[in-house]
Amino acid sequence: MRVLILAAGQGKRMNSKIPKVAHKILDKPMVNWVIEVAQKVSDEIAIVLGTGFDIVKQLIDTNITIYEQKERLGTAHAVMCAKDFLKNGDNVLVLYGDVPFISYNTLNLLYNTHLEHNNDATVLSVVLDDPTGYGRIIKDSKNRLIKIVEDKDASVNEKNIKEVNTGIAIFKSDKLKDSLNKISPQNAQGEYYLTDVFLFFDKTEVIQLENNVEVLGINDRIQLFEVERKIRMEIMKKLMLNGVTIVDPYSTYISPDVEIGMDTIIQPQTFIYGKTKIGENCDIGPLTRIKDCIIGNNVKILRSECELSEIKDNVKIGPFSRLREGTFLEENVKVGNFVETKKTHISSNSKAQHLTYLGDTYVGKNVNIGAGTITCNYDGKNKYQTYIDDYAFIGSNTSLVAPVKVGKNSLIGAGSVITKDVPEDSLALGRAQQINKLNWVKEKKENNSKGE
């Protein structure tokens, strides 16, 4: 089976310079939700783009075939733009870039039913209390599909039907190609409706979906908010049923790809995005943002930001720490108030607890980084590494000018600027000699008062 995603719509009601399908839901572009579920059912995926072609193209994997719909002439016309993707003897699943929450299980059911019953097409429907705006499913007395009528073309009686077309369907590709040549834009919108192709099929089956959330479409920012809230609650209910404590789900945001272990506590106003994995017995938040991190067990992160980092067991982070890409913290590390790390490896039992910047740095075991320490890793053109060996002690307010190495068991005096390597078991001082000029201030004041 192949998958064709229609994502060419303009999305006028979003009132945005950004294409609708590029708007984010839980920090992930809407279209990528659809692509990821498509990748679970097929290796052959194509997408039809229109408005904001260049913007959306940047969000899409290179192994996905892209077609462009230059004119907005309806859903069937969008499929026509990808006609080369339809292969005789194959089946094609049609998805939509603004219907992001369709599940793998539903698509798998749709596909298996389609094959088992040898249907020309298999359509996914849903019953809505308010079906306004959706195409109505018209069936015969034997519950077989007769046609689908778009809302603007529906009669008064047809508008009362609450079973609607979700747009998601599987087709025999050769049947679909043949029927596309037979439809016309003779309707209220003057468009080529994909739903008209069902008039030319011999056997179309309708599968009614129970979970409406899976097929909620998004047309404006209010719907974007409402749909995101619903999917957030589903994600968090699943996590809580699996043993995670979420103190305040209404102020917490967790992406669907996040994995969290048993007995971990997620405090209020916490944002966890991307492919993050969090172990057991952790305490995360409040006021914390984590993206694409791997976090071990018994980790505590308080009021901090972590991105593209790996954190081992029993680590304490925060408050107000910032772990940037390439940070690796081994077991029992402590990173504290206003500490920033980037491309830095801190080995077990080491700590940097106050007002520190560590960039392009290796820190050995049992190292103490004093308050106000910074690694000067950038000379305006290139970046260099700082290496701090095991059991070193870095005094407060030290500047380590990379490239530089601090040897094992060495001690750096507070306030030092270190520009050369420090041997093992050594004391390094890199500061100017203090000079006290007695009575200088008093004499200065007296001279100023005399006008001298």
Automatic annotation (TrEMBL):
Coarse class of the protein's main subcellular location: cytoplasm
PROSITE patterns: HEXAPEP_TRANSFERASES
GO molecular function, one term: glucosamine-1-phosphate N-acetyltransferase activity
Reactions catalysed, as given in the entry: N-acetyl-alpha-D-glucosamine 1-phosphate + UTP + H(+) = UDP-N-acetyl-alpha-D-glucosamine + diphosphate; alpha-D-glucosamine 1-phosphate + acetyl-CoA = N-acetyl-alpha-D-glucosamine 1-phosphate + CoA + H(+)
KW Cell division (keyword) present: no
Region of interest called Pyrophosphorylase, as start-end residue ranges on this chain: 1-221
Catalytic residues (positions): 354 (proton acceptor)
Keyword field: Acyltransferase, Cell shape, Cell wall biogenesis/degradation, Cytoplasm, Magnesium, Metal-binding, Multifunctional enzyme, Nucleotidyltransferase, Peptidoglycan synthesis, Repeat, Transferase
Binding residue positions for acetyl-CoA: 371, 377-378, 396, 414, 431
GO annotation, cellular component aspect: cytoplasm; membrane
GO biological process, one term: UDP-N-acetylglucosamine biosynthetic process
Listed EC numbers: 2.7.7.23, 2.3.1.157
Subcellular location: Cytoplasm
HAMAP family tied to this protein: GlmU
Family: In the N-terminal section; belongs to the N-acetylglucosamine-1-phosphate uridyltransferase family.
UniProt name for this protein: Bifunctional protein GlmU
Species of origin: Defluviitoga tunisiensis
